[in-house]
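Summary of Year 1 activities. Much of the first year was spent building the evaluation harness for sequence design. The harness presents a backbone, in tokenized form, and records the residue chosen at every position. We chose the following record to illustrate the format because it has been used consistently in internal testing since the harness was completed.
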């Protein structure tokens, strides 16, 4: 598991797959992040057990311009081998050089991705049951991730359990 490079300006530039260590044993969670694609795409991994086993997704520029057209490409990586890729066109009005809020929900066998509050993809798969979240960019891709928020135990019982588990402050 690698740490992310944080620039002096306060954002992360994804490179090789970097996984967020505290998320590695999680089963169900929600991740929100604010990102901006500079060149081609930004990638994120979820239910990652290691660098060889995870679900991958990329938000990529399908048609550049002042109002670019994006698509979401998702695929499994199992034992280091990429599985079949599914590409979903994103039908949201977007502007060039603008950050977008992305939300990924991982719950049971279901996975959903939303951009600016609009659902763009939902799918199911049962191969990976637990695992963390991270970012990556391939050669020629460049993006900025301004912030990320990871939440789990977000239902009523989970919040109570998380509260009880917190150590008392002396």
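For this record, the design step produced the sequence shown next.
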């Amino acid at each position: 598991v690698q740490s992310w490079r944080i620039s002096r300006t306060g954002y992360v530039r994804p490179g090789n797959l970097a996984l967020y260590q505290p998320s590695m044993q999680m089963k169900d969670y929600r991740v929100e992040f604010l990102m901006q694609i500079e060149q081609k795409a930004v990638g994120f991994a979820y239910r990652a057990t290691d660098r060889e086993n995870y679900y991958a997704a990329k938000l990529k520029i399908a048609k550049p311009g002042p109002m670019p057209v994006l698509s979401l490409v998702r695929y499994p990586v199992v034992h280091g081998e990429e599985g079949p890729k599914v590409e979903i066109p994103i039908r949201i009005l977007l502007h060039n050089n603008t950050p977008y809020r992305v939300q990924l929900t991982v719950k049971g066998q279901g996975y959903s991705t939303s951009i600016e509050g609009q659902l763009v993809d939902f799918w199911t798969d049962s191969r990976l049951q637990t695992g963390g979240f991270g970012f990556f960019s391939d050669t020629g891709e460049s993006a900025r991730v301004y912030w990320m928020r990871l939440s789990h135990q977000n239902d009523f019982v989970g919040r109570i359990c998380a509260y009880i588990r917190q150590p008392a402050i002396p």
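The first strand starts at residue 18 and ends at 19. Quantitative recovery figures across the full test set are reported in Table 2.
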